[in-house]
Amino acid sequence: MLLLSDFLGSDVRSSTGEIVGRLLDLTVRFGAPHPTVRRLVLGQRGPRAYVDWDAVTAFEQGEVQLSIAEVDVGGDAPPPGPGDDELLLAADVLDTQIVDVAGKRLTRVADVLLARSGSALQVAGVEVGASGVWRRLGWRRLAGRTPSEDVDWADLHLTSTRGHALQLARPDAAVHRLRGPELASVMAHLPAAQAAQILGVVTPTAAAGALRAAHPSVGARLLPVVPADTAAAVVGQMTTDDATAVLRRLDADSVEVVLGAVATDRAATLRRLLRHRAGTAGGLMNSEVHTAGEGESVEMIRARVAAGPPDLEGLTTVFVVDEAGRPVGRYEPNDLLAGRATPRPTPTLASTLPVERVIDLFALQDVLALPVVDDEGRLIGVVGIDDVLEELLVERLPGRRRYAGLWSRIPRRHRNRRAS
Amino acid sequence: MVGPGLLAGLSDDDPAGITTYSVLGAEQGYRLLWVLLVSTIALVLFHDLGSRMGVVTGQGLTGLVRETYGVRRAAVAVTALVVANVGTTCAEFAGIAAGFELFGVSRLLSVPAAALAVSLLVLRGNFHRVERVLLLLSAVFVTYILAGLLAGPDWGAALRGTVTPSLPGSRDAIALATATIGTTLAPWGLSFIQSYAADKHMTTDQLRYERVDVITGAALTGIIGFFVVVACAATLYPQGVSINDATDAARALEPLAGDLAAKLFGVGLIGAALLAASVLPLSTAYSVSEFVGREAALDDRPREAPLFYGTYAVIVTLSAAFILVPGIPLVSILVLTQILNAVLLLPLLAFMYGIARDPAVMGEHAAGRGVSAAYLVAIAFIALCVGALAVLTVA
Description:
By secondary structure, chain A is an alpha+beta fold.
């Protein structure tokens, strides 16, 4: 394996043996999982020159030999530069940050790994971590004692301005293959502008899946930055719980910009939920709840639930309500399976009940879901055990960031809350 | 939430800062107050730049220097930062030693105990429980405002000293001016504010609020510094009192606290020193990890982040051990380390200037001509002070 840093600064000689410049960079074009080097970038005094790889007859550390006698530095023409689809390995990759998709981390390129493939030179991947840094500083003994870490080219996303833009434009780039926690990891690590660009190029379903896997603050950071129709499309694909968790962190104006482009019914549901304060049962609840009338038998309820919409957040607790819409009992999933004759009694949660009390009730009552009622006792939503877990993970466990507040802490494992 | 500008401002009133400002007032009276003003303006300029760099690039200072200039120049930057931070951490432990000595506790006991306590609290994640207490203790230095007012200073002279640049050609005066710059615009603060902005994922929309936060923090530094100088100029300078130890410095609080001045000063020193002694090694460890390209956090076990924990341990151990060398003059250490800060600021500010002007890095937020000129003037002023001090020291 060859290291790019070993070759940068090498003398480049023409076919006549004259030094025509020093090697400043190599270009590749995105396409294959391991692209081949396309051109050399030379420089000495004056403008840079770009030379096709085909003109290289020898590529050794310290010296590169060309088959051409002269190198065109452009004369009066505009100075050459990389093509729109060309990546510069030294300028756009070396020492820049990358998202290691497989390792779900942000790290920095210490060197670029190249492999000879016949007469071509391929980019195999990058070296990250301290070993490459010590080696490039000339501390080879220390470098030898430090473990080296490599990331395959196919498993990384570049964060440099050109690198990020070029990768986004390639439908076969890593970022387009990512879903869920991996995509969430990339977006969480990028600055808002770059992460928002990703939201704009992946499908709304993929974007919604990524925001679902990320901390709600990631969605709150990105939705105001993307065009309103993109934000609306993403919100349209998110579950009600996830959408409200993100929207609740936005200011009122930003919420209205997003919801203004969302379908009317959905927007109305979300606005209703957002009226309830965070930190209360109303702020936790989901308005999609299965109900049954007092006169319905468990067989009828079971048949209706089986035929009903499958997207009830994994819970199928059915609440029995009276004519006024007040919960009077519940059937848990086991009750429906076993054909329990009568509903269980059900405690209710006032919409203004603080979350701490909600958590206590779940722990004490040993339930899967509890109904939320308004001032008149009418059912307006449901809080499930998953909502309680989300609240605990996202908001309540001590967290850590470097300088958040002074010393507030979020364990890194909770940053992508559903990452595997 | 306390913003990074305000945090950095509060942390600037650490033992090194308070001692430097005290010596400035005790030995030069009011005439070098203009240096404090210039330093505060430089603080606003470069903290604003630092937070902008963090917001626009999403990266900390050492990482951004590496990405922009390459690994060798970034090694220069991180070395300057580490050396400056070791010096300032020495100053913090000197502050702990001086503060406890005001209560009759030997530094041989207080310094190792403080090093251990701070390390355990930070590394075991319990620091957030005591941070508010320490912030409260260090807020004692706000009493300098009252002390300064009660001391009956010559306000005319104070105003003249603030707006009329005059610098005696003596080595001591230039050393104090240089130390004032180094303690006000500390290297660690530049790195801290940029990392904070990047870590919090602040957006460019928030930059104008962040500017308010930076100006507020800098103003707080400047105001407290001003009253420290004025209080010492009004009480110690007329009597020709030199500050050789913390007891001398504490006398400036006598108009406010009378016989309790020393104890009040000691409490402030200890609180501020403990706070800074925990932030500095941690900030440095983050910067080194960032330079190497390996994200690290206190979540990681030592085996997962040896460089992070190793850096932390080396800085705390070296700094505490240095203060325990017999006969080390604490006040001199407190001031000399700030001169070192000013020297090591130069390469860091040069890198920041280059990045600020680069549209490829900063995009539409690249510095325009006017503010670039202001950066250059500030850098030139610092270079002039450092250069003059070097010449006078060698001569």
